[in-house]
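Our working data are protein records whose layout never changes between entries. Instead of coordinates, the fold is spelled out as a row of discrete tokens. Here is such a record, shown just as it appears in the course material:
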Amino acid sequence: MSSHPFYAYCKEALGDIEKQGRYRRFTPLSRQSMHYPVYDRKINAKEETPIIAWSANDYLGMGIEPEVMNAAIMAIQKYGAGAGGTRNIAGTHPLHEALEAELADLHGKEAGLLFVSGYVSNQASLQTILTSMSGNWMTFSDQQNHNSMIAGIKGAKNADCVVFKHNDLQDLEHKLANAPKNVAKLIAFESVYSMDGDIADIGAICALAHKYNALTYLDEVHAVGLYGKEGGGVSQRDGVANQVDIIEGTLAKGFGVHGGYVTAKREIIEYLRLAAAGFIFTTSLPPSVVAAALKSVRLVRQQNWRREKLFERIHTFQEKLRQANIPFIETKSQIVPVIIGEAELCKKISQRLLDEYKIYAPPINYPTVPKGTERLRLTPNPYHTDKMMDDMVDALKALLPKK
């Protein structure tokens, strides 16, 4: 067995990744629910040290909200640890249906469907849609779409895909106008892009979709919970959710729990429920997770102060960076990218932040971002204090290369 060529291939590939400075090593961390964003970093078998996390996607801190945690505890005591099967085989619980209805209502859609993760909801939904109608589809995909969307689009092998320049409406229209008239068209894009933190003009894209009779598929993963009067995302904030055909989201970021979902007209959701392999053939989300997510969604919808506090903290942190002359990508989102631009240097700065300053901000390297744009992706949340922000700014001043 050890002579199989794949072993040698893995060894060589790993060596190449190491040489390029993009070998990813996990940092074992234990989040402290009473002290978020404080985590405990495991040093050895006997020693742990507290660190401040600056990269978590639990943007509102809903994962440590007592009501959310208690909902999970009560559900696990009543219903057990697991779901017991797929949705078709003993795995559908009334809580699943309640959460799907809540999410559909959040986005102003007729129905919703839960998946085990946001990645699976994108991959399974897009692939299922694009393999329908004998694959007579052409997808128009934003250049910076997430890997899960790309995987779903590529999985539909008979459907054509055209990539348009990132957030470039002129390029998108040019490609739509030159597409064959006899194919079904779908525009796949995101609202908030997670690496640069920029935001799509959803209304304008929907107008182009209407003009060229294209279906719209919007990934709101990094926006749900954070934007709009109830946390329905950028499409809700901009008043255009009703113009989007399919809205996909996650329960693992703004809502702080786990799982993914899509919402749309009832016939689309029913088709995905009956045809999407990524939904049919996997064990469903445990009732404890669903109960926590349902509580979180309901709280976030009701309590706008959480969004107000988040953006107050973001703006405060951005201003501290400006005052210290630390370069970062100016965004209107919750994501604050500090560009380093070289993989090995990015990794070294991240490691020194952790070892010397007790700050956790992992390096974001290729293939997550293009080579030459390596960065620290910072996500201040409502629990980052002014002192934590000042400490981060001081550490960056000390570690970043002097211009």
Q: What stands out?
A: The chain has two domains: 22-53+304-399, 66-302.
